[in-house]
Design brief:
The complex is a heterodimer of chains A (111) and B (113).
Chain A (H helix, E strand, L loop, with lengths): L8 E5 L4 E6 L7 E8 L6 E6 L4 E2 L4 E4 L5 E6 L8 E9 L12 E6 L1
Parallel strand pairs in A: 1-9
Antiparallel strand pairs in A: 2-7, 3-4, 3-8, 5-6, 6-7, 8-9
Chain B lengths: L3 E4 L2 E4 L5 E7 L5 E8 L3 E10 L2 E4 L7 E2 L9 E3 L8 E8 L8 E2 L3 E5 L1
Parallel strand pairs in B: 2-11
Antiparallel strand pairs in B: 1-3, 3-8, 4-5, 4-9, 5-6, 7-8, 9-10, 9-11
Classes of the chains: A mainly beta (111), B mainly beta (113).
Chain lengths: 111, 113
């Protein structure tokens, strides 16, 4: 499984868009990009995932570059409740849905 | 409400005293997995199960056992806990098809003295 690189921390003003980058330069063709977040020490929460195309759901948007070597998670209007650690993970479509977790980006949304 | 339930949420125990952390999901998911989370190391997979009576080792299985006798339950067993098993443990489940999304429990914080 490919590894990912994320900045250790970021800040964002409440109400503004939060753009969280992720580098996955060794990603292979059958690997998906997943994003999860973890608030305090609660169980991680799935946000979104994609393979090639940009994706959007009620929580966020995922922008994947054309060469698939990097991606950006966008929280369009960050709130204080979005303060969390955000994990970018690449995973193949194999049967063991193991996720290789890095240390993520600690996002602080400030009032 | 769809959920993954772990018990106990918090436990302090002593070296060598066998313990079981239970995990139950009410979503009829076939896949279940255990992770541990340690500072500076992130989450690491301990064991996983593709279905009833089918289990396999993850990346850090030493010192742990699991069983999958029913689809909804996937207990994590520490036969002889040691201090290096002090950690935050998460159980997760996933449906057989769809997004591959993992649903996590709220975690069990275990301290072994």
């Amino acid at each position: 499984d490919a590894k990912t690189t994320q900045p250790p921390s970021m800040d964002c003003a409440e109400g503004r868009a939060a753009n969280l980058p992720c580098n996955h330069s060794t990603i292979s063709g059958n690997e998906y990009v997943y994003w999860y977040r973890q608030i305090h020490s609660q169980g991680p929460q799935y946000i979104i995932h994609g393979l090639k195309n940009n994706e959007t759901n009620e929580m966020a948007s995922l922008i994947i570059t054309e060469d698939r070597k990097s991606s950006t998670l966008i929280l369009p209007h960050a709130t204080l409740r979005d303060t969390a650690v955000y994990y970018c993970i690449v995973r193949n479509a194999g049967n063991n849905r193991k996720l290789i977790w890095g240390l993520g980006t600690s996002l602080a949304v400030n009032p | 409400e769809a959920q993954v339930t772990q018990n106990p949420r918090y436990l302090i125990t002593v070296t060598g005293k066998k313990l079981t952390v239970t995990c139950s999901q009410n979503m009829n998911h076939e896949y279940m997995s255990w992770y541990r989370q340690d500072p500076g190391l992130g989450l690491r997979q301990i064991y996983y199960s593709m279905n009833v009576e089918v289990t396999d080792k993850g990346d850090v299985p030493e010192g742990y056992k699991v069983s999958r006798k029913e689809k909804r339950n996937f207990p994590l067993i520490l036969e002889s806990p040691s201090p290096n098993q002090t950690s935050l443990y998460f159980c997760a489940s996933s449906p057989p098809r769809g997004t591959g999304e993992l649903f996590f429990g709220e975690g069990s914080r275990l301290t072994v003295l």
